[in-house]
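#help-structures

NK: newbie question. if I give both the sequence and a SMILES, will the prediction place the ligand too? trying with zinc ion
OV: yes, paste both and it writes out the complex. here, I ran yours:
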Amino acid sequence: MKTSKIIIYDEPTVPEIRIEKLEKFLKDIFHTDVEVRANFFEDADEKLFQEISTSRIFELKKPFSKHIPTESEIEMERENIDNSQNEEKILYDGFEFQKIISKFIPTNEQNQDTLHIVLTNKLTCTFDESDFRYHARSLIGTNPSIISTTGIIEAPAKPKEYYLELMTNFSKENTDKIKEKFKGEFLEYHDPRLSEIVKGYMLQSIIYYETGEAFCENKECRLYNAHWQKELLHSQLNKKFCSKHEKSFKKLISYS
Ligand SMILES: [Zn+2]
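OV: that's the protein plus ligand as structure tokens.
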């Protein structure tokens, strides 16, 4: 492995990540140095808040153009650090977001050997040229890698029946009933399964950084790019690689 050290930046508003478990998980399998740090935005330079707010997106059907933030939007970035849910659902262009984060990593830690994985509750999105609109994303590679805890919940779609029932039953009472009916079939905020799911995204980001191999087509594999919540839960809670990736994974760790 080219990586000799992995630095994870915590998202303490989502304690279900169980950062100490993730740290142990990575240490155990990769035998690299793993360091856990506070949230990337904690005690951050004023400039970071200012720059991050330039990556906000307001129109889903237009490609990115740099936003000129107001004072209150910058202030909001600072205040949102402690918000457990990004209630206002602010959307960010994932690639811009990643570029900005990379600028704020200390120069002596910007090297091939150190992989930075930033966990955040901010919702990253990428613009898709094929349908010409933005989509929420859970993971933005490479170094630094961004894992959006809100993206994990919002990006892979919930069952079609769930949306259909919601669309035809408007009352609050019905909405609660529908949610109860589908409970467990998709991730919710503060879902205890998040820790295991985040492990999978960490594996995806490390393997992508190391081998350049992005996602897998096999639904049984931890590297599968899930478009549905059901697939995400299946591929990650199954905790397995497909045979091809099992091989490349073993090869990778044998050189570490
Ligand atoms: Zn695979």
